């Protein structure tokens, strides 16, 4: 069965520090998607990035970067020069092609990031 | 693009009452999901619609829960005879077709508190 583990429950950093959020996943599928979502205090889940299992290229978007490594089943997320507005809960999620058309998401338990001024 | 909307945003009810939540997906999205999120946890899948057909239901969806999407547009989630354990955030998500359709976009959620 699929599983997503975010071992870091809470991380606290001072503004302008870099921070990496870890995500480890388990799946028997060869075809799957990985996602990161941000959940600010308002509660809405905001989509950040999607990667498919055949694309291991790292991606950078502004201060955000993602490192996907199939060999270690990890999909880590780094925020460079963190800002107070980055404070939120961040979720890693997995969807598998074997789940049919549903492709429902399996989420990790989230990492609460607090950026202090 | 109008995002996913949910109504109400907050609901307080007494144990034993019935509640109904509504979700309006992104207009061109034919796929709709309900998830439940309890405090300190990630969202958990409840059910999935493709157009008006309910194609997947989680074991979490007990007999007291029912979801509909009558015309393939908005969806409702009803909880009958609420229990205190039903207190949670109920999230709706939608996705479209094609490669970009692999991403689910979420609404703001409905926070339910059962007293």
Concise summary:
Chain A is an all-beta fold and 117 residues long. Chain A has no helices and 12 strands. In chain A, the strands form 3 sheets. In chain A, strands 2, 5, 6, 10, 11 and 12 form a 6-stranded mixed β-sheet that branches. Chain A has a 4-stranded antiparallel β-sheet with strand order 3-9-8-7, with no helix packed on it.
Written description of the protein model:
- Chain A is mainly β.
- Chain A is built from no helices and twelve strands.
- Chain A has strands spanning 3-5, 10-14, 19-21, 24-26, 32-39, 46-52, 59-61, 64-69, 74-79, 88-96, 106-107, 111-116.
- In chain A, the strands form three sheets. In chain A, strands 2, 5, 6, 10, 11 and 12 form a six-stranded mixed beta sheet that branches. In chain A, strands 3-9-8-7 form a four-stranded antiparallel beta sheet, with no helix packed on it.
- The model of chain A has no long low-confidence stretch (mean pLDDT 94).
- Chain B has 115 residues and is mainly β.
- Chain B is 0% helix and 49% strand.
- Chain B has strands at 5-7, 10-13, 19-24, 31-37, 44-50, 53-57, 65-68, 75-79, 88-95, 105-106, 110-114.
- In chain B, strands 2, 4, 5, 6, 9, 10 and 11 form a seven-stranded mixed beta sheet that branches. A four-stranded antiparallel beta sheet of chain B has the order 1-3-8-7, with no helix packed on it.
- Chain B is globular and about 45 Å long.
- Chain B starts with a strand and ends with a strand.
- The model of chain B has no long low-confidence stretch (mean pLDDT 94).
- At the A-B interface, strand 5, strand 6, strand 10 and strand 11 of A face strand 4, strand 5, strand 9 and strand 10 of B.
């Amino acid at each position: 069965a699929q599983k997503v583990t975010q071992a870091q429950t809470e991380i606290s950093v001072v503004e302008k520090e870099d921070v990496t959020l870890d995500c480890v996943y388990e799946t028997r599928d060869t075809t799957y998607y990985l996602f990161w979502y941000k959940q600010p205090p308002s509660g809405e889940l905001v989509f950040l990035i999607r990667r498919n299992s055949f694309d291991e290229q790292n991606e950078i978007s502004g201060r955000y970067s993602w490192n996907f490594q199939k060999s270690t089943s990890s999909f880590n997320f780094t925020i460079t020069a963190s800002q107070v507005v980055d404070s939120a809960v961040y979720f890693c999620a997995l969807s598998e092609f074997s789940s049919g058309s549903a492709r429902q998401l399996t989420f990790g338990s989230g990492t609460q990031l607090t950026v202090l001024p | 693009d109008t995002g996913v909307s949910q109504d109400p945003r907050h609901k307080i009810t007494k144990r034993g009452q019935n509640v109904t939540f509504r979700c309006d997906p992104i207009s061109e999205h034919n796929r709709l999901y309900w998830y439940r999120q309890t405090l300190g946890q990630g969202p958990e899948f409840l059910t999935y619609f493709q157009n008006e057909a309910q194609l997947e239901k989680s074991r979490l969806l007990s007999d007291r829960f029912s979801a509909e999407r009558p015309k393939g547009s908005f969806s409702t989630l009803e909880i009958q005879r609420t229990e205190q354990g039903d207190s949670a955030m109920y999230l709706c998500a939608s996705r479209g077709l094609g490669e970009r359709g692999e991403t689910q976009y979420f609404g703001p959620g409905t926070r339910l508190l059962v007293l």
